[in-house]
Every structure is written in structure tokens, then in C-alpha cells.
Design a protein that fits this description.
Layout (H helix, E strand, L loop, with lengths): L3 H14 L7 E7 L3 H13 L3 E7 L1 H9 L3 H16 L3 E6 L12 H23 L1 E6 L3 H6 L4 H12 L3 H17 L2 E6 L2 E6 L6 E3 L4 E2 L3 E4 L7 E5 L4 E3 L2 E11 L2 E8 L1 H8 L8 E7 L11 H4 L5 E6 L19 E3 L8 E4 L2 E5 L2 E2 L9 H4 L1
Parallel strand pairs: 1-2, 1-3, 3-4, 4-8
Antiparallel strand pairs: 5-6, 5-17, 6-10, 7-9, 9-14, 10-12, 11-12, 12-13, 14-15, 15-16, 17-18, 18-19
Helix pairs in contact: 1-2, 4-5
């Protein structure tokens, strides 16, 4: 029997997230995903008159492709993947895994080939700026272990988060977007953190189920050379198959001049990918009321209510500060009281304290008002 929650989620993805219209082509890319969900998405796409294109992938196979990569093999794959992406108007990426560390033993130089010849030309150059796209994880025992949860309890959590009333969230986000677009100076304070930068003149973008599921953030980008001070991220990060922890960056005139974290060699390898990897490409505020603690999955962790993520690497075209990089490393700082507290200031005014918005116009984004 098909889980009715899959039907509801598929409806959200096709009709709300992708706004798929009659005649539009959509690429459904599924990695270690139950075939029932892929089949439901195909059916839902055709019901609205869409034209589905499906690709099925597996992480163990992808690991071998990355591990044995050559410049020629990555160029070939990147060319084919880009051709396909250029043929569609919408994209759904469903990404599951049976082992969150499947890519942990892929050498950094091989990952760099993937980033340069596959990830950047397909996803950064085509999918992100030119399609109506949405990306989501899929619940698995592996993810439940990350979240320190039973499999059944995690599935319940997953569908609750993914089937949130995103239209309500979108409306509540508008005052924050407007305030950010009027703001010049931002200051973040937390244990081990005192970071300052400008966001003047850079658009703010609301994320309420159109790009990611789960969703719940408003993002912009720091003016590239304006970042000064130190930030200590109090959550772990799983990036390109490696688990990172205790990461701290010190900035001077926008550039990371000092970095620490575990594993230290991998932190440096990411920052040495290219010159843009040592500058920030995104500053975002998380507001999803159902996501309250990290689970070592960026797509969830960056939406934690009361969090921010401050991202080394490429900026998005919608909120560009001009920084280009093969890296986009979302790292999360939680500022709720449970995680040590903290403050967020806009132009010297306290906007959020210990994860709670203070101005009346922003209080609809506090968790009790979004449930």
C-alpha cells in the first residue's frame, strides 16, 4: 500500500514547489529513493500536463564514479548532465542514502574534479538560475540514526516538517525580507562569535517551500569585503562525504585568514579549493518551527528555528555579492538558549535574542506562530 503522506508530499512538490504547468518538462532525479515515491511523482506531473524525465542513481555507484574520476570522465558526465538539465523547465532532486558516510573516502582532489566539471556547470550554471527547482532528502534508518531517533518516529517528524503550511510561512517572511533589504550593518554575537558585516544593496530572498523541502529561511549575502571578526559554528556538518565539527573562522576584510576545526586537513582542503572558498557567499536566517536540533543533514539543519548559516563559497544569483567558487558550504550557528544563546543585530537594533524575534512585525516567524 502507498503511504498517503507520499501523495500529499508529491502534490506539494509538483503543484506548489515547482508550479508545474501544462507542457513543461520536469527532471525527477532520485538517489536511493523508494520506487513508489518516484512513480507517484511521475503520475502527479502528468496529471497537470507536465512531461516527466526520470533518472535513478545510487550513492554506492556515485562513490565509484567520484573515486575513480578523471578529468575526461567528469567532463563527459558533466556535459551529458548539463544537456539534460538544459532541456527541462523544472527539477526535483530526491536524495536518500543508506550510509551518510558513503563518500568519506573519496580523495579531495577527486571531489574537486566533480565540483569543477559536473556540479558547477550543471547545478550552479543551469539548474539553480534557469529552472523551477526543489531539492529534498528522503527519510531512512541512516537519517534516523543521525537524528538519534527511531525509524518510525523520524518518518513522522519528516512528513510533519515537509508538509508544513508553507504558504503561511511565506506571508510571515515578507516583513523580514523587507527589513533585511533596508539594513546595512549586521552583527552576530554568541559564545565564540563576534562577527560583523554589511548586507547593503543585496536582495533578500524568502525560501518557503519553493526551493527546498523542508524549507524555512530568508537569505542574502554579505558585501564581499565587509566581513570582520570571528564565528564559531556549534553544529556538525556533513559536506562532500566528510563529517566536520568545532569549526571556527576569523575574517579580515571579507577573507578567512584563520580557520580551525575537525578534521583540520579537510577544513583546509575545502578552503583551498579556489580563491572564492575563503569568502562568504550567503547569510541566512532559519525559521522552521519543527526543526529544533541538528541532525547532521544540511538541508534540515540550515532551517533550524533560531539559527543562522554563514556560508563560505559561491553566492546565489538572486542575492549575489559577486563571489564565485566551486564551494557552497552551509555551516550553522544555533542561537537559542539551549545552544548557548546569542543576539542578532541590524544597524545596531536587537532583532533576535536567544532565537526569538523581538520586533512585533517579525513575531509571526516565532515557532509558536508558525505551527
Amino acid at each position: 500500500m502507498i503511504d498517503p503522506r507520499m501523495e500529499k508530499l508529491a502534490e506539494t512538490l509538483i503543484r506548489y514547489s515547482c508550479r508545474l504547468k501544462k507542457g513543461e518538462k520536469i527532471l525527477i532525479e532520485a538517489i536511493d529513493i523508494p520506487e513508489e515515491m518516484v512513480a507517484i511523482l511521475v503520475r502527479k506531473a502528468t496529471e497537470v500536463g507536465g512531461v516527466p524525465l526520470v533518472t535513478i542513481k545510487q550513492n554506492r555507484v556515485l562513490r565509484e564514479m567520484y573515486r575513480t574520476a578523471t578529468e575526461q570522465s567528469m567532463q563527459l558526465t558533466g556535459d551529458v548532465e548539463r544537456f539534460r538539465m538544459e532541456k527541462v523547465q523544472a527539477y526535483i532532486g530526491l536524495r536518500g542514502t543508506h550510509n551518510v558516510n558513503e563518500l568519506a573516502d573519496v580523495p579531495p582532489e577527486k571531489i574537486k574534479l566533480y565540483q569543477q566539471h559536473w556540479l558547477a556547470p550543471v547545478h550552479f550554471d543551469v539548474r539553480v538560475p534557469k529552472t523551477k527547482w526543489v531539492v529534498l532528502r528522503w527519510p531512512s534508518p541512516s537519517m534516523a540514526q543521525q537524528a538519534k531517533s527511531s525509524t518510525d518516529a523520524f518518518e513522522d517528524f519528516y512528513f510533519k516538517v515537509c508538509c508544513l503550511d508553507y504558504a503561511k510561512m511565506a506571508k510571515a517572511m515578507e516583513p523580514l525580507k523587507e527589513l533585511m533589504e533596508k539594513t546595512d550593518h549586521v552583527k552576530l554575537v554568541a559564545p565564540g562569535t563576534n562577527l560583523q558585516f554589511s548586507i547593503k544593496g543585496i536582495p533578500a530572498v524568502t525560501c518557503s517551500g519553493r526551493r527546498n523541502i523542508p524549507d524555512g529561511e530568508v537569505f542574502t549575502a554579505p558585501v564581499k569585503d565587509s566581513v570582520n571578526g570571528t564565528i564559531h559554528y556549534n553544529t556538525r556538518s556533513l559536506y562532500l562525504g566528510t563529517e566536520f565539527s568545532d569549526i571556527s573562522f576569523t575574517f579580515k576584510k571579507g577573507k578567512i585568514v584563520k580557520a580551525s576545526g575537525n578534521p583540520a586537513d579537510r577544513v583546509q582542503a575545502v578552503l583551498d579549493t579556489d580563491p572564492g572558498a575563503r569568502f562568504l557567499g550567503e547569510f541566512a536566517i532559519g525559521v522552521n518551527p519543527h526543526v529544533t536540533k541538528p541532525m547532521l543533514d544540511t538541508l534540515f539543519d540550515e532551517k533550524i528555528s533560531g539559527s543562522v548559516h554563514v556560508t563560505p563559497g559561491a553566492s546565489y544569483d538572486e542575492a549575489s555579492n559577486g563571489n564565485k567558487s566551486q564551494v557552497h558550504w552551509d555551516l550553522v550557528l544555533i542561537q537559542t538558549a539551549e545552544w548557548g544563546g546569542g543576539e542578532l543585530y541590524f544597524d545596531g537594533k536587537l532583532i533576535r535574542k536567544n532565537g526569538v524575534f523581538i520586533p512585533k512585525s517579525l513575531q509571526p516567524l516565532n515557532p509558536e506562530n508558525l505551527m
